[in-house]
Specification:
Length: about 325
Protein backbone atom coordinates (compact mmCIF):
# COMPACT_ATOMS: atom_id res chain seq x y z
CA UNK A 1 0.00 0.00 0.00
CA UNK A 2 1.38 3.41 -1.02
CA UNK A 3 1.63 5.42 2.21
CA UNK A 4 2.71 8.95 1.22
CA UNK A 5 -0.31 11.03 2.20
CA UNK A 6 0.68 14.60 1.50
CA UNK A 7 3.42 16.97 0.37
CA UNK A 8 4.39 20.23 2.11
CA UNK A 9 5.51 23.32 0.19
CA UNK A 10 5.32 24.18 -3.49
CA UNK A 11 2.27 24.76 -5.67
CA UNK A 12 -0.63 22.35 -5.97
CA UNK A 13 0.80 21.29 -9.31
CA UNK A 14 4.21 20.63 -7.71
CA UNK A 15 2.62 18.59 -4.95
CA UNK A 16 0.67 16.49 -7.43
CA UNK A 17 3.83 15.87 -9.45
CA UNK A 18 5.79 14.73 -6.38
CA UNK A 19 3.02 12.38 -5.26
CA UNK A 20 2.72 10.91 -8.76
CA UNK A 21 6.49 10.41 -8.99
CA UNK A 22 6.67 8.65 -5.63
CA UNK A 23 3.64 6.49 -6.47
CA UNK A 24 5.23 5.49 -9.78
CA UNK A 25 8.49 4.58 -8.03
CA UNK A 26 6.52 2.55 -5.50
CA UNK A 27 4.85 0.56 -8.26
CA UNK A 28 7.64 0.19 -10.81
CA UNK A 29 10.74 -0.14 -8.58
CA UNK A 30 12.77 0.79 -11.65
CA UNK A 31 15.80 2.28 -9.89
CA UNK A 32 18.73 2.82 -12.24
CA UNK A 33 21.04 3.45 -9.28
CA UNK A 34 20.75 -0.20 -8.27
CA UNK A 35 21.91 -1.62 -11.59
CA UNK A 36 25.04 -3.73 -11.06
CA UNK A 37 24.77 -3.80 -7.25
CA UNK A 38 21.37 -5.41 -6.65
CA UNK A 39 21.26 -9.19 -6.87
CA UNK A 40 18.45 -11.55 -7.76
CA UNK A 41 16.36 -12.63 -4.80
CA UNK A 42 16.50 -16.34 -3.98
CA UNK A 43 13.60 -18.31 -2.44
CA UNK A 44 15.01 -17.88 1.09
CA UNK A 45 15.06 -14.07 0.98
CA UNK A 46 11.63 -14.02 -0.67
CA UNK A 47 10.40 -16.09 2.27
CA UNK A 48 12.08 -13.66 4.71
CA UNK A 49 10.31 -10.72 3.07
CA UNK A 50 6.99 -12.55 3.23
CA UNK A 51 7.48 -13.43 6.90
CA UNK A 52 8.40 -9.83 7.74
CA UNK A 53 5.39 -8.50 5.85
CA UNK A 54 2.94 -10.93 7.46
CA UNK A 55 4.42 -10.54 10.95
CA UNK A 56 4.34 -6.72 10.82
CA UNK A 57 0.76 -6.75 9.54
CA UNK A 58 -0.25 -9.15 12.32
CA UNK A 59 1.21 -6.84 14.95
CA UNK A 60 -0.43 -3.75 13.48
CA UNK A 61 -3.77 -5.54 13.32
CA UNK A 62 -3.65 -5.81 17.12
CA UNK A 63 -3.59 -2.01 17.23
CA UNK A 64 -6.43 -1.70 14.73
CA UNK A 65 -4.11 -0.52 11.96
CA UNK A 66 -4.32 -1.67 8.35
CA UNK A 67 -1.18 -0.42 6.58
CA UNK A 68 -1.40 -2.85 3.68
CA UNK A 69 1.18 -5.29 2.37
CA UNK A 70 4.71 -4.83 1.02
CA UNK A 71 5.67 -7.46 -1.55
CA UNK A 72 9.13 -8.77 -2.46
CA UNK A 73 9.34 -6.41 -5.42
CA UNK A 74 9.74 -3.48 -3.02
CA UNK A 75 12.86 -4.98 -1.37
CA UNK A 76 16.26 -4.96 -3.07
CA UNK A 77 19.17 -7.12 -1.93
CA UNK A 78 22.52 -5.39 -2.37
CA UNK A 79 25.90 -7.06 -2.88
CA UNK A 80 27.80 -7.08 0.38
CA UNK A 81 30.85 -5.33 -1.09
CA UNK A 82 28.60 -2.58 -2.45
CA UNK A 83 26.74 -1.93 0.81
CA UNK A 84 27.61 1.67 1.74
CA UNK A 85 26.76 1.92 5.42
CA UNK A 86 26.77 0.28 8.83
CA UNK A 87 22.98 -0.01 8.80
CA UNK A 88 21.54 -3.53 8.78
CA UNK A 89 18.91 -2.38 6.27
CA UNK A 90 17.40 0.89 5.04
CA UNK A 91 13.99 2.19 4.08
CA UNK A 92 14.51 4.76 1.28
CA UNK A 93 11.66 7.26 1.17
CA UNK A 94 12.68 8.86 -2.14
CA UNK A 95 12.66 5.49 -3.91
CA UNK A 96 9.83 3.88 -1.89
CA UNK A 97 11.79 0.71 -1.26
CA UNK A 98 13.87 -1.18 1.29
CA UNK A 99 17.52 -2.04 0.74
CA UNK A 100 19.24 -4.86 2.61
CA UNK A 101 22.74 -6.33 2.21
CA UNK A 102 23.07 -9.94 1.13
CA UNK A 103 23.43 -12.47 3.95
CA UNK A 104 23.13 -16.20 4.42
CA UNK A 105 21.22 -15.91 7.69
CA UNK A 106 17.64 -15.46 6.60
CA UNK A 107 16.08 -15.37 10.06
CA UNK A 108 18.18 -12.30 10.85
CA UNK A 109 17.23 -10.86 7.47
CA UNK A 110 13.55 -11.30 8.31
CA UNK A 111 14.06 -9.55 11.65
CA UNK A 112 15.91 -6.64 10.01
CA UNK A 113 13.30 -6.42 7.28
CA UNK A 114 10.52 -6.29 9.87
CA UNK A 115 12.00 -3.10 11.34
CA UNK A 116 12.26 -1.44 7.92
CA UNK A 117 8.80 -2.58 6.84
CA UNK A 118 7.33 -0.89 9.91
CA UNK A 119 9.00 2.32 8.66
CA UNK A 120 7.68 1.62 5.16
CA UNK A 121 4.14 1.09 6.46
CA UNK A 122 4.18 4.11 8.79
CA UNK A 123 2.80 7.58 8.08
CA UNK A 124 4.71 9.39 5.32
CA UNK A 125 4.74 12.89 3.88
CA UNK A 126 7.07 14.61 1.44
CA UNK A 127 8.23 18.18 1.14
CA UNK A 128 9.37 20.49 -1.63
CA UNK A 129 12.50 22.60 -1.11
CA UNK A 130 13.91 25.11 -3.61
CA UNK A 131 16.33 22.59 -5.10
CA UNK A 132 15.17 19.24 -3.75
CA UNK A 133 12.24 16.95 -3.00
CA UNK A 134 12.60 14.89 0.17
CA UNK A 135 10.80 13.29 3.09
CA UNK A 136 9.08 15.55 5.58
CA UNK A 137 7.51 12.88 7.79
CA UNK A 138 8.22 9.17 8.29
CA UNK A 139 6.42 7.75 11.31
CA UNK A 140 6.93 10.12 14.24
CA UNK A 141 9.92 11.88 12.68
CA UNK A 142 9.66 15.41 11.34
CA UNK A 143 12.24 17.09 9.13
CA UNK A 144 12.66 20.84 9.42
CA UNK A 145 11.30 22.78 6.46
CA UNK A 146 14.83 23.54 5.29
CA UNK A 147 15.61 19.81 5.38
CA UNK A 148 18.54 20.37 7.72
CA UNK A 149 17.44 18.47 10.82
CA UNK A 150 15.24 15.53 11.71
CA UNK A 151 13.31 15.61 14.98
CA UNK A 152 12.00 12.74 17.12
CA UNK A 153 14.35 10.12 15.67
CA UNK A 154 15.12 8.31 18.98
CA UNK A 155 11.44 8.08 19.89
CA UNK A 156 10.49 6.90 16.41
CA UNK A 157 13.15 4.18 16.48
CA UNK A 158 12.10 3.13 19.97
CA UNK A 159 8.48 2.64 18.90
CA UNK A 160 9.55 0.90 15.69
CA UNK A 161 11.96 -1.52 17.34
CA UNK A 162 9.45 -2.32 20.10
CA UNK A 163 7.00 -3.27 17.36
CA UNK A 164 9.75 -5.26 15.62
CA UNK A 165 10.31 -7.33 18.76
CA UNK A 166 6.56 -7.99 18.85
CA UNK A 167 6.81 -9.14 15.23
CA UNK A 168 9.74 -11.43 16.05
CA UNK A 169 7.72 -13.01 18.86
CA UNK A 170 4.58 -13.35 16.75
CA UNK A 171 3.17 -16.73 15.75
CA UNK A 172 4.07 -16.02 12.13
CA UNK A 173 7.76 -15.49 12.85
CA UNK A 174 8.10 -18.18 15.51
CA UNK A 175 6.45 -20.77 13.25
CA UNK A 176 8.33 -19.96 10.06
CA UNK A 177 11.73 -19.88 11.79
CA UNK A 178 11.07 -22.42 14.52
CA UNK A 179 14.15 -24.51 13.70
CA UNK A 180 16.53 -21.54 13.60
CA UNK A 181 15.15 -20.14 16.86
CA UNK A 182 15.44 -23.56 18.50
CA UNK A 183 19.12 -23.80 17.48
CA UNK A 184 19.88 -20.37 18.94
CA UNK A 185 18.12 -21.20 22.19
CA UNK A 186 20.03 -24.48 22.45
CA UNK A 187 23.38 -22.70 22.08
CA UNK A 188 22.43 -20.21 24.79
CA UNK A 189 21.22 -22.94 27.14
CA UNK A 190 24.36 -25.04 26.60
CA UNK A 191 26.71 -22.10 27.23
CA UNK A 192 25.14 -20.19 30.15
CA UNK A 193 28.51 -18.94 31.45
CA UNK A 194 29.67 -17.48 28.11
CA UNK A 195 31.06 -13.96 28.35
CA UNK A 196 31.86 -11.20 25.91
CA UNK A 197 35.22 -9.47 25.55
CA UNK A 198 34.40 -7.19 28.50
CA UNK A 199 33.72 -10.13 30.80
CA UNK A 200 29.98 -9.52 30.81
CA UNK A 201 27.38 -12.23 30.14
CA UNK A 202 27.22 -12.91 26.42
CA UNK A 203 23.52 -13.68 26.48
CA UNK A 204 20.92 -11.25 27.81
CA UNK A 205 17.20 -10.83 27.44
CA UNK A 206 18.04 -8.80 24.33
CA UNK A 207 19.78 -11.71 22.55
CA UNK A 208 17.64 -13.21 19.81
CA UNK A 209 20.24 -15.12 17.78
CA UNK A 210 23.32 -17.24 18.51
CA UNK A 211 25.51 -19.42 16.34
CA UNK A 212 28.78 -21.30 16.74
CA UNK A 213 31.83 -20.35 14.72
CA UNK A 214 34.32 -22.86 13.27
CA UNK A 215 35.98 -25.24 15.74
CA UNK A 216 39.18 -23.81 17.23
CA UNK A 217 42.44 -25.67 17.93
CA UNK A 218 41.39 -26.40 21.51
CA UNK A 219 38.08 -27.87 20.36
CA UNK A 220 35.99 -24.87 21.46
CA UNK A 221 33.96 -22.50 19.32
CA UNK A 222 33.50 -18.77 19.22
CA UNK A 223 29.86 -17.82 19.69
CA UNK A 224 28.34 -15.06 17.57
CA UNK A 225 25.19 -13.33 18.72
CA UNK A 226 22.72 -10.67 17.62
CA UNK A 227 20.75 -8.39 19.91
CA UNK A 228 17.57 -6.41 19.57
CA UNK A 229 18.59 -2.87 18.65
CA UNK A 230 17.95 0.66 19.95
CA UNK A 231 18.20 -0.48 23.55
CA UNK A 232 18.75 3.00 25.04
CA UNK A 233 15.90 4.43 23.00
CA UNK A 234 13.56 1.62 24.04
CA UNK A 235 14.50 1.99 27.72
CA UNK A 236 13.69 5.69 27.51
CA UNK A 237 10.41 4.93 25.74
CA UNK A 238 9.36 2.48 28.46
CA UNK A 239 10.25 4.98 31.19
CA UNK A 240 8.29 7.69 29.39
CA UNK A 241 5.23 5.48 28.87
CA UNK A 242 5.28 4.40 32.53
CA UNK A 243 5.57 7.97 33.79
CA UNK A 244 2.83 9.21 31.48
CA UNK A 245 0.51 6.49 32.73
CA UNK A 246 1.27 7.25 36.38
CA UNK A 247 0.63 10.95 35.83
CA UNK A 248 -2.54 10.37 33.80
CA UNK A 249 -3.99 7.15 35.18
CA UNK A 250 -7.44 8.72 35.29
CA UNK A 251 -7.27 9.04 31.50
CA UNK A 252 -5.68 5.69 30.62
CA UNK A 253 -6.71 2.24 31.83
CA UNK A 254 -3.20 0.78 31.42
CA UNK A 255 0.33 1.50 30.23
CA UNK A 256 -0.54 -0.49 27.12
CA UNK A 257 -3.14 2.16 26.30
CA UNK A 258 -0.46 4.86 26.51
CA UNK A 259 1.79 2.79 24.26
CA UNK A 260 -1.09 2.36 21.83
CA UNK A 261 -1.25 6.16 21.53
CA UNK A 262 2.39 6.28 20.40
CA UNK A 263 1.91 3.41 17.96
CA UNK A 264 -1.23 4.91 16.48
CA UNK A 265 0.49 8.27 16.05
CA UNK A 266 3.36 6.57 14.21
CA UNK A 267 0.91 5.31 11.61
CA UNK A 268 -1.58 8.18 11.35
CA UNK A 269 0.89 11.06 11.70
CA UNK A 270 -0.92 12.78 14.59
CA UNK A 271 1.71 14.30 16.89
CA UNK A 272 -0.65 16.71 18.64
CA UNK A 273 -2.01 14.19 21.16
CA UNK A 274 1.48 12.99 22.12
CA UNK A 275 2.81 16.54 22.37
CA UNK A 276 -0.07 17.74 24.55
CA UNK A 277 0.19 14.69 26.83
CA UNK A 278 3.93 15.12 27.38
CA UNK A 279 3.66 18.88 27.96
CA UNK A 280 0.73 18.40 30.35
CA UNK A 281 2.70 15.81 32.30
CA UNK A 282 6.13 17.47 32.45
CA UNK A 283 5.55 21.12 31.65
CA UNK A 284 5.29 23.32 28.59
CA UNK A 285 8.18 22.80 26.18
CA UNK A 286 8.89 19.20 27.24
CA UNK A 287 7.85 17.69 23.92
CA UNK A 288 9.97 20.18 21.99
CA UNK A 289 12.93 19.40 24.24
CA UNK A 290 12.66 15.67 23.57
CA UNK A 291 12.01 16.22 19.87
CA UNK A 292 15.34 17.96 19.36
CA UNK A 293 17.48 15.13 20.74
CA UNK A 294 19.31 13.07 18.13
CA UNK A 295 21.34 10.63 20.23
CA UNK A 296 19.85 7.60 21.96
CA UNK A 297 21.96 7.90 25.11
CA UNK A 298 21.13 11.58 25.46
CA UNK A 299 17.46 10.76 24.94
CA UNK A 300 17.59 8.18 27.74
CA UNK A 301 19.46 10.51 30.10
CA UNK A 302 17.00 13.34 29.46
CA UNK A 303 13.94 11.14 30.01
CA UNK A 304 15.44 9.76 33.23
CA UNK A 305 16.05 13.28 34.57
CA UNK A 306 12.62 14.42 33.43
CA UNK A 307 10.86 11.50 35.10
CA UNK A 308 12.90 11.79 38.31
CA UNK A 309 12.28 15.54 38.71
CA UNK A 310 8.75 15.56 37.40
CA UNK A 311 9.44 18.43 34.99
CA UNK A 312 11.31 19.23 31.80
CA UNK A 313 14.38 20.82 33.41
CA UNK A 314 14.19 23.79 31.04
Amino acid sequence: MFRVERVAGGTERDKKEVLETLAERFESQDHKELEGIAIEKNPEIIKAISVADRATSAVLEKYGIDAGSIDANKVHVIKRDAWPSDDAAQFIFSHQCVLIPESENYMKQAYRLSHELFHFKSYQAGQILPDERMDYRVGLTVKTRDGGQTHLTPLNEAVTETLTIEAFRSDVFQTEYAEEIKKSQAIMQQNPEAQNEDGQPLFTDQTFFAELGPELDDGSHDIFTSQFTYQSEREAYQLLVTALYEKNHEKFESMEEVMRLFVTSTFNGDLIKIGKLIDKSFGKGSFRQLAGIQDGEEFLMTVKKMVASGNNLI
